[in-house]
Amino acid sequence: MSLADLPGILAAFVAARRALAIPDRAALLARQDRALAHLRRTTLPASPFYAPLAEAPFQDWPILNKASWMENFDRINTRGIRHDAALALAEQAERARDFAPTIGDVTVGLSTGTSGRRGLFLASPAERRLWAGVMMAALLTGNPLRPRKVAFLLRANSNLYATAGIGPVRFRFFDLLQPWLVLLAALRAYAPDVLIAPASVLALLAEAGGLTPREVISVAETLHDDEAAQITAAFGTAPRQVYQATEGVIGLPCRHGRLHLNEAYLRIETDWIDRATHRFAPVVTDLFRRTQPVLRYRLDDIVTLDPTPCPCGAAARVIARIEGRADDICTLLTGDGDSLPVFPDLLTRAVLAACPDMTRFQLVQHRPGQFALSLPDAPDPAQLERLTPALATLAGRLGARAPVLEAGPPLAPAVKRRRVVRVHRQHGGAKGAITTGEG
Description:
Layout: H1 6-19, H2 25-42, H3 66-71, H4 73-76, H5 83-96, E1 107-110, E2 120-123, H6 125-139, E3 148-154, H7 159-162, E4 169-175, H8 180-190, E5 194-198, H9 199-208, E6 215-219, H10 225-235, E7 240-241, E8 243-245, E9 248-253, E10 259-261, E11 266-274, E12 279-286, E13 297-298, E14 301-306, E15 318-325, E16 330-333, E17 339-342, H11 344-354, E18 362-365, E19 370-374, H12 381-397, E20 404-407, E21 420-422, E22 434-435
Parallel strand pairs: 3-4, 3-5, 5-6, 6-7, 18-21, 19-20
Antiparallel strand pairs: 1-2, 8-9, 9-10, 10-15, 11-12, 11-22, 12-13, 12-14, 14-15, 16-17, 18-19
Helix pairs in contact: 1-6, 9-10, 11-12
């Protein structure tokens, strides 16, 4: 961060402290309407893809996914940046581990691509300052002027993340692609007050010991209950979760630790996967992103809403769980051979209930009614024997026959981990209409 960024970050921080705490739902939606109207006037005309839609009703704007967003990268962004040039810069940054270069003044980032195609994102200096201010407003507890050292562990750094280092907040990036023991030694020497990392990395750090952070924040992966308990026990503080994707900051924690949809800055429509259990896929419109508009972008995530009001008083809806990807809804078979969907969260909970010591695992489905279990080492027969009846019990509750469970290959090292993976993308759940209501 340069000193020139300071006024913009502070202004964004002050505004975000107010916006994220808006207590009245009608006022929150009115803020969205004003921001959407401004975006329609200023951003859509500058995007060759969206310019023809500047006067069209919002519900007529196309719903995009990662594939269509990337296919139209050149025409969606408002700075005339070409996909090939941005990808070349991002890939060179990955190889050199130097993430400072930009295209003009625009930062280019590259997602990990766990769902298939890797996504490119663009951020102008103003967008970086806004992101930093919002994140600091949501994550810094207590006196914001209190000095603190922040350690951020991820696969790749970015000018976006570095912008968060401001005044008394010292920010340091730790590269997850360096050797683990080297990383651990450097982290212990730094002695961070705030530790930010993927859930699986936080769990490993909890096992390793030697760190005493005051605050722990989980990013980039789903934070499971068992990991949260392990992290809390090790560090003496409960981890808070940030729900962020290439397409924006989708959810932020409040002071009570509950995760709220970031509705002060996004309009989030609900594409229902299972309305009865409050499960949906978010369709995101970022109301403040200008360089690379994110408009009606459907995430491939399974998010569960919590109908219980939050004691913090904020009007933004509360997320009960982020269960994984909709593509990873698996399939069980009935006695008649019909298909039944089973959500990743149910499978994860069944594994942990039967084998609570099995914290690092991956359950992979290649065919309906069959699973392969991968562990850091090859599973032994006793582990399969413990898990097989647990999956059979789950299947019975859902009206399906017991699935076949076999040993899979050893778990490959991964920077971003999913506990349940469906390889054959045959979606078993019916989706209903997209709505913008309360869920």
